[in-house]
Design goal:
Elements lengths: L1 E5 L3 H12 L3 E6 L5 H6 L1 H19 L8 H22 L4 E4 L3 E4 L2 E4 L2 E4 L2 E4 L3 E3 L13 H5 L7 E5 L3 H13 L2 E5 L11 H13 L3 E3 L3 E6 L2 E6 L2 E6 L2 E4 L3 E3 L31 E3 L10 H16 L12 E3 L5 E5 L2 H7 L3 E7 L4 H6 L5 E7 L4 E7 L3 H13 L4 H5 L10 H7 L2
Parallel strand pairs: 1-2, 1-7, 2-3, 7-17, 9-10, 9-15, 10-11
Antiparallel strand pairs: 4-5, 5-6, 8-16, 12-13, 13-14, 18-19, 19-22, 20-21, 21-22
Helix pairs in contact: 1-8, 3-4, 3-6
């Protein structure tokens, strides 16, 4: 079988590697560099900055007035990208990689670099791009791509948007020395997260010196001054750099989806639960569908689409996708929130524990955090929400348990090693 994949982000290249390993004839077409947004201007470079910001914070806590040159951090960012790109190239040794812009000619053919490429099945994984508010002066703001390429730390930074991307950069540049202001339109930070978790994170970030304004509607940007309304009153904030972090939009431009009759909306390409478009043999995964815009979600969707193409059943649960925000402290979540439970009329208990009562957290001087687990009346695990050091790692203990159908009673009788941060999970389970 000939499989054509458009896009070399996680949803594209990981699926290509899997498909080639199964003996399919795979062609991967990419307009940008291998790794897509995640590797080149998203997850990975951002986490590189987060790492050094954390080191600076830890030194500061220890009373060490040590700085890390920003040019060194940027050199390290580029080195990490280069190293991982080389690794992807090795993984794709059995895949025909074509660099160029893919454009549909019909339901089984795309044109790239003036040449036609035919396939028996096609997976679209072209990702997304930064969204911009339709306001005067929006072009004066930088996006998550440009902020990673700065040559020096700005004296002040205004972040428009209090979602995952905005808060990660706000946290990083606050640690690096910027005076940071976050303007969020919604009543809470991280609008799709558990409200309790979002409120606790706001308190923590505010204590670190980040100014956060909620229910702030940005109306214009003019030479570094951001104008916004809040409760019918006009305000403004000035900053050396303005970051626009108001979400992302599906990248469908130039694909000529109409030529293949592929259905889509402004949000993204329309797919069913198996990530099939309305055209037989054509699938779409990841950000381009306008759904959950996470690299690991795209990877899992790509695997499921490949399994469907190959007639291989799987039991991947797309209602249990963990998410992490690499602020300081980190936050992570999976499953239902308390708000979800209330809206759906689900009876639940909220079980909590706190980092300040955990021996490992105290020894690390990382006591700012808590763990909340939502359990149903029958002991089922409904959701988990963690704020604190290494919460992006701890959340997977609950992810595995929930995917396996483990109950509260089962986990309560599980032995956890001591002293570990994982014991915050156990302490919550035993409440």
């Amino acid at each position: 079988m000939r499989l054509l994949i458009i896009g070399a982000g996680p949803g594209g290249y990981e699926t290509a590697v899997q498909a080639a390993g199964r003996g399919l004839e795979v062609t991967l077409v990419t307009e940008g560099p291998l790794g897509g947004t995640c590797l080149n201007e998203g997850c990975i470079p951002t986490k590189t900055l987060c790492h050094y910001a954390q080191l600076i914070d830890e030194n500061r806590k220890a009373g060490i007035n040590a700085t890390i040159p920003f040019d060194f951090i940027q050199q390290r960012r580029l080195a990490v990208i280069s190293q991982l790109q080389s690794g992807i190239e090795m993984l794709l040794k059995n895949v025909n990689v074509i660099y160029g812009k893919a454009c549909f000619k019909d339901t089984r053919t795309i044109t790239v670099n003036g040449q036609d490429v035919e396939a028996d099945a096609i997976i679209i994984a072209t990702g997304s791009r930064s969204a911009m508010l339709p306001i005067p002066g929006a072009d004066q703001a930088i996006t998550s791509k440009e902020i990673l390429e700065l040559e020096q730390v700005p004296e002040s930074l205004c972040v428009i948007g209090g979602g995952v991307i905005g808060l990660e950069f706000a946290s990083v540049f606050n640690s690096l020395g910027s005076q940071v202001t976050v303007l969020e339109y919604c009543p809470n930070l991280l609008p799709r997260f558990d409200v309790d978790l979002a409120k606790r994170l706001k308190q923590s970030l505010s204590r670190q010196g980040i100014r956060i304004e909620l229910q702030a509607q940005v109306t214009a940007i003019d030479n570094g001054t951001v104008f916004y309304t809040q409760k019918d009153k006009q305000f403004e904030v000035s900053a050396k750099k303005v970051l626009m972090a108001v979400g992302r939009r599906a990248n469908m431009d130039g694909l000529n989806l109409e030529a293949a009759g592929i259905g889509y909306t402004r949000r993204g390409i329309t797919v069913d639960s198996d990530f099939r478009t309305n055209v037989p043999g054509i699938y779409a995964v990841g950000d381009v569908t306008g759904g959950i815009m996470l690299a690991h979600a795209a990877s899992a969707q790509g695997l499921h689409a490949l399994n469907h193409i190959c007639g291989t059943p799987d039991r991947i649960r797309f209602d249990l996708i963990p998410a992490a925000v690499f602020t300081s402290p980190e936050v992570a979540t999976i499953g239902l929130t308390e708000e979800d439970c209330k809206q759906q009329g689900i009876e639940y208990r909220a079980l909590k524990s706190f980092y300040r009562a955990n021996g490992k957290a105290v020894s690390m001087d990382q006591t700012d955090g808590y763990c909340k687990i939502l359990a149903g009346a029958d002991g089922s695990l409904l959701g988990a929400h963690i704020m604190g050091a290494h919460s992006s790692d701890l959340i997977h203990e609950l992810a595995v348990a929930m995917n396996a159908g483990a109950t509260l009673q089962t986990l309560q009788q599980t032995i956890f090693a001591h002293p570990t941060l994982s014991e915050t999970v156990l302490s919550a389970l035993r409440q």
